[in-house]
Amino acid sequence: MRGASRTSQNGRSCTGARCGAPAARAFGLAIALVCTQAQAESLPSVAAGPLPSPSPSPTPAAVSADLSSGQVVLNRGSSFLQRLGTEATHGGNRLLRSNPGGGGASEASEAPRFRTWGETYGITARASAQGDFAGDRRTTWGGVAGLGMRVIPGVNIGLSVDQSRTWVDVPLALQSATLDLTQFGFNASVDNGPWTWAIAIVHGFGGINARRDTGFGAASSAYAAHITGVLSEIDYYWSIGESRVVPKLALEYARATTAAFQESGGLDPVSVSGTSLERARILVGAEVGRYFVVDGKILDLSAYAKFVDNVVQNLGSLTVSLGPQSITLQGLGEGHYGADAGAAMSLSLTRTARIYLNYDAKLRSVLQSHQGTLGVELKW
């Protein structure tokens, strides 16, 4: 019948179009699913590729030995300057210039006019960690030869050459370096009553060879270094019988440069720019000493201490590059304030020959060094 009713699955009755609507909706949903699957199968498949790996970047620790070497060049120039200054102004040396024989000897004008000296020395130093720098140990051996002349009484000049080799070890960074340095020095002094004024000039050049363990072989480098420095010092010789007190004031300036280089070998060898380091400082202190005359021989004992103020420290910077990546690092300093101290013993064997032994310590907040020097001087 036209108006007959049917019973749905849930037991409810429906009539005509009302009973056909659910079936139509189910049929449409099935058609849509089939079409969607067909479209998905017709689209091209795209495989996910690996993400691009980032470019390797240089690490600050990669140039620890090179940072150390630049500071070593600067400090070796300063050390030679101060030795030349001491050679010109040391109270014991002035005693011998004015009274070479001791105990009523002849006037200074009758003293030998020329002198020559030779020294051998050793230095041990340790630099503390600074930022990304892990700290190092340094050992130096060297020798000095010099020739001096008394121009007129009270005016002396000298020329000398210093040859040294320094080993730098940075154990925590698996790095090391050697520095071979040649320095030429000039010094002059003028005595006027109790006053002595001296000047020293140094210029040097050398080569640095560095080695870095990369875990996949050693990366090595070789590059040049230069040092230039000047020191001016004024002293006042205060004599008290056979003893003396000598207040000292000195100004020092030194500039060191290292050349650019490219490492070779190992994993990810880096290239490093050249750099320059400058330092100006004031040294204020005093020397105390006493001499003894025994059988015409003069034994002179002395000690000194100085306060050091690094008024200017331009530590420079260097750029480390690995492919397109690069970083910029600052050079190493030694602290704003510090102290120098030491002692000396000199024995005049004859009127024209003496031997001497010196000890010098440099004490800074992040750097300490100790130097021993043995020397012989001959006059004619």
Radius of gyration: 39 Å
Oligomeric category: single chain
For the record, give the distance between the C-alpha atoms at the N and C termini, rounded to a whole number: 150 Å
Helix content: 10-25%
Structural category: alpha+beta
* Binned strand content: over 45%
Give average pLDDT, whole number: 86
Number of strands: 19
Low-confidence stretches: 1-24, 29-36, 42-46, 102-108
Largest sheet: 12 strands, antiparallel, barrel
The run of helices and strands is EEHHHEEEEEEEEEEEEEEEEE
Spatial order of strands in the largest sheet: 3-4-5-6-7-8-10-13-14-17-18-19
Helix count, DSSP H or I runs of 4 or more residues: 3
Assign an overall shape.
Answer: elongated
Structural overview:
The protein is of the alpha+beta class. Helices cover 16% and strands 57% of the residues. The chain is built from 3 helices and 19 strands. The protein has helices at 16-42, 64-89, 91-98, and strands at 6-7, 13-14, 114-127, 136-152, 155-170, 175-192, 195-213, 218-236, 238-240, 243-258, 261-262, 271-272, 275-294, 297-314, 317-322, 325-330, 337-348, 353-364, 367-379. The strands form 3 sheets. A 12-stranded antiparallel beta barrel has the order 3-4-5-6-7-8-10-13-14-17-18-19. Strands 11-12-15-16 form a 4-stranded antiparallel sheet, with no helix packed on it. β4 and β5 form a beta hairpin. The longest helix is centred in the N-terminal third of the chain and has 27 residues, at 16-42. It starts with 5 loop residues before the first strand and ends with a strand. Residues 1-24, 29-36, 42-46 and 102-108 have low confidence and may be disordered.
